[in-house]
Design goal:
alpha/beta, eight-stranded parallel β-sheet, 14 helices, globular
Length: about 300
Amino acid sequence: MTLRSPFSALTSALTSALTRSLAIAAVLAAFTLPASAQAPYTGPLFDAHLHYNDEATARYPIADVLGRMQRSGVRAIVANSRPNDGTKALAAAREATRRAGVTVVPFVRLYRNRADYSGWHADPSIVEMVQRELAAGTEAGPYRGLGEFHLYDSANADGPTARRLMQLAEERGLAVLAHVDDVAIVKLFAHAPKAKLIWAHSGIGDVPIARVRELMQRHPTLMGELSYRPGLTVTDDRLSPAWRALLTEMPDRFLVGSDTWVNGRWDDYEALMQQARRWLGDLPPAAARRVGWENGAALFGLAAP
């Protein structure tokens, strides 16, 4: 029998411990490295929340904004503007949008001016304006949705105009883009259970991600738009673990958006789309394409670019 020295036994034990540590580290790396090491998503983007408001039309001509979209790989947009003139201008630029490869999906916005933000939900003249716009349509075709609208008090989701417009959207198969809290989501669906409702920012404010998941499970026609969503990303525009789990679990329920509500967002448009590409890159490729393009395209019947 060969006797081993104490030094040899110690060396063997340390080697074994080191081997186990390296194996554990490799297992952990398998779970933690891919998210940070993924390349950005490179496919087409559907911008499901874009404004071309009056202050933007004065500063950024059609050719300018389409150039920003084209350089960003944005191939379709939900256009909703205050007033609706900006959306109609984009829709009318048919040759320019064709050259840029951008499809305009027009929505009727409920705001004629800033005063409408707070009182629209109980203003019957808003219903009349929406009906006129729907009857007229745009040069790119009929309006496909209503909104974006805000409800600063969720109780106002029960206002007569809010109720009527949700019912109108359900009757006509229009999508609705709503900047509201989770309580208002429930109220809006109570008026129109089968409406196609896009939740702007997917719970901006204090809505927990568990509540977002719960509402998605309860309402199969609810979609979540992800601009301005606190907690979506962490360092270097990477998805937080909780959001990565939810988007991987429900890749068919979310959309990308820019929310160009002020001119500064137009200045940063290309950077905003690059940020989206980085966090989309943290998802499995099929899920990234669903969120980045396919969900919006399916919602409005667009062909692949």
